[in-house]
Amino acid sequence: MTKANSNYDKLPQTYLFVEIAKRTAAYQAKNPKVKIMRLGIGNTTEPLGPIVTKGLVGGAKKLEDVNTYSGYGDEQGDNRLRSALAAWYQKLGVKLEPGEIFVSDGAKPDTANIESIFDKREVIAICDPVYPVYRDSNIIAGRKIVYLACTDKNEFFPELPKEKVGLVYLCSPNNPTGAVASRAQLKKFVDWANKNKAVIIFDAAYSFFVSDKKLPRSIYEIPGAKRCAIEISSFSKFAGFCGVRLGWTVVPHELGKLNALWNRRQTTMFNGASNIAQEGGLAALSPAGQKECLKTVSYYMENAKIIKNGLVRLGLVVFGGENAPYLWVKTPKGLDSWSFFDKLLSEAHVVGTPGAGFGKYGEGYFRLSAFGHRADIVAAVESIKKNLML
Amino acid sequence: MTKANSNYDKLPQTYLFVEIAKRTAAYQAKNPKVKIMRLGIGNTTEPLGPIVTKGLVGGAKKLEDVNTYSGYGDEQGDNRLRSALAAWYQKLGVKLEPGEIFVSDGAKPDTANIESIFDKREVIAICDPVYPVYRDSNIIAGRKIVYLACTDKNEFFPELPKEKVGLVYLCSPNNPTGAVASRAQLKKFVDWANKNKAVIIFDAAYSFFVSDKKLPRSIYEIPGAKRCAIEISSFSKFAGFCGVRLGWTVVPHELGKLNALWNRRQTTMFNGASNIAQEGGLAALSPAGQKECLKTVSYYMENAKIIKNGLVRLGLVVFGGENAPYLWVKTPKGLDSWSFFDKLLSEAHVVGTPGAGFGKYGEGYFRLSAFGHRADIVAAVESIKKNLML
């Protein structure tokens, strides 16, 4: 029989969300009248505004008219969108050419596929806890992985790798911890990467949640980053495009042949983001579109504040939730994260995500998400305040 | 410096379309008044009908309403669409479960990514001439490739591989030759694969162009194919979705763990096709939508007939163009395919694709495409009839 890629056997089984669903269903079956509330998912819930919707609808309608119909576009993305993204970076003081920006169908595939352009023998470093895609894509590729602990002792931002590594994945604002890297923290990694000729893969998918002007929204705000960093970002959370699928990856020309390699990877193995989604992206980046999208971002951040205030008032220790849509809650009384899951579900009827599901340093923590309708968020927090026995 | 994946250096430089553009531009610069006509591109040109457009517009508008908004869907695709595809296969007499059908953003990424689930030491066989994505994705993965010659002597359908290979890529209706495999031809490969425990990757992206009831539209119409074949297909040419991005891959349960592996690949490294595109796909698969789409397919096939009749009347030998949108023209007087390119451009002002660009057995052939507006197709054929010196 044709042999399968045995690296898939090395993947940790992703029982996390399966196990959450199982425990939730079991509780619901035993308690059919209980209304279970969810604060666990990282999925947008609020509808699009009229400007972005008009962009998407207009993109679809263009296809009905022979004069505006389009088939395959450039795999790298519509030049208008690449230019609009370059203009958006310009406002952060970051100068990029459209040819350095590759439009895609989202940050997840890009963070998973970027490893393709690197030698399989390069060791990579990722944070623990971590968004599992960085890990799993590199396990499938057969790479050695070094884990960098992120705990309250280092403000959930890793120390520099001690081993020799070729690639480091960083994510800020962070999923799952909600930590946001400062300029000084990022500078430490940029300087290290330039000194050690390593490459940083910077996942900025949540950058639109940063409202504090002191915090960087792009790694290219750090001097020297264009010589060592690839940045991946997304319209998913900014524009509500989780299901629409649109993202981008920046590979600066200063990274030498990596720009040409990513271009080759994308032109060979990808066929461009949906032309409809790209019209929506253009609408979202228009001045009025940005205003519309940021209103929804503010709505989620208000949710985050409601959750954080509610839990802090209960005496819980809560990280994140400021400039990031995730809250990282220290489980009370030293409970492990699955025990806290069970407690929260049975006492307050609220479902969250056990931190242990994101890595061993996630043990003792719990992820809550600010995505959700306001009434549901308020009800969940009220239920926690009223019913959780601490 | 972090080492790059050196397999990229082994990729043949894809000068084909760059060289075509260069020669065309040079000719236009010297002859600014000439109107150059294109019969070379494999890109749809005709607008969508009202039913499919309504599906896409409806998909976009759902996102504006809090009650119908959706974020992330299942990476494997909307269950309604997976079921609609299973129902479509049922009409061919092929029984598939929705869980065997994985919706994606197109056949190109799927044909490129499918190699991920196989051992890198497996040797693969591809046709020559060939759609380059099968070759390039496997070169990037570092695999050994065996080429199977497709010539007029074997009706452009390959002989069985002589070497031991684990995977064979087949494409029918074929890009670039326009050849359509018969049941007997496919059966030969299915039986060989089952006997040798090999896997066939079957690219059926052009199956909707098959109108001859005797010809198979899915490899699963061949007994035993579910035990050895993965089928990849697309809405690009059927529904005019080249730019909308929607396709699917079938991995039957009979293939054992390969179904679970592709599921793991897609859930780890992909985040689902656009929800808007999927609504369009559902509309295209509705009875009225299929009728609407097949009208456009017939339009392109009428183009193919016009090209084929015109060239045959000139005494040229033309393959394909029946049940396939590509025509594979034998270059006259033993001209090599680039010389014929220059001749066609300078004498008839028509641009096509030199067969040599698809592999060494493409030398001496020329690919023409039936995608285009009728008036442009007619004008190009008239110009060839009037001006090409044979």
Structure notes:
The structure is a homodimer of 390-residue chains. Chain A has 390 residues and is α/β, with parallel strands linked by helices. Helices cover 38% and strands 14% of the residues of chain A. Chain A is built from 11 helices and 13 strands. In chain A, the strands form 3 sheets. In chain A, strands 2-8-7-6-5-3-4 form a 7-stranded mixed beta sheet, sandwiched between helices. A 4-stranded antiparallel beta sheet of chain A has the order 9-10-13-12. The longest helix of chain A is centred in the last third of the chain and has 27 residues. At the A-B interface, α2, α4, α5, α7 and α8 of A face α2, α4, α5, α7 and α8 of B.
How are the SSEs ordered, and which strands pair?
2 copies of one chain form a homodimer.
Chain A: H1 16-30, E1 37-38, H2 50-62, H3 79-91, E2 101-104, H4 107-113, E3 124-128, H5 132-140, E4 145-149, E5 167-171, H6 183-196, E6 199-203, E7 229-234, E8 247-250, H7 257-269, H8 275-285, H9 287-313, E9 318-320, E10 326-330, H10 337-348, E11 350-351, E12 353-354, E13 365-369, H11 374-387
Parallel strand pairs in A: 1-11, 3-4, 3-5, 5-6, 6-7
Antiparallel strand pairs in A: 2-8, 7-8, 9-10, 10-13, 12-13
Helix pairs in contact in A: 2-8, 3-8, 4-5, 8-9, 9-11
